[in-house]
Amino acid sequence: xxxxxxxxxxxxxxCVEGAALPAVMASVLETGFYSHRFHFCFAExxxxxxxxxxxxVIRDGIVPMVTVERLDYRPHRxxxxxxxxxxxxxxxxxxxxxxxxxDKPTHPVVGSESTSP
Length: 117
Description:
The protein is of the alpha+beta class. The chain has helices at residues 28-31, 41-44, 54-59; strands at residues 8-11, 23-25, 36-38, 65-70. It has a four-stranded mixed beta sheet with strand order 2-4-1-3, with no helix packed on it. The longest helix is centred in the middle third of the chain and has 6 residues, at 54-59. The protein is globular and about 40 Å long. 21% of the residues are buried.
């Protein structure tokens, strides 16, 4: 069980806002950036931001390279979402898309079911 860092913002390499950032292989999104969001430049390129995923970008070869922007999330309250990875301590935060908060898991861990009421 672990915490995930806040989300990075992913751009297509041609995006003006992401142009100064170094390009990385799109496959890095699945292995290095569990928490990520797609910049509106993907929508401008004709992709649906509501349905696009890292797997879709990689599988369909939408773009072979992307640029990744690290965002500075100001201090904020943890606002849990409905999205939680099996190995995450908490659900993703609706604000930063990371998992932060207390280290006590927010979902049951397999084998730790309690019999007390």
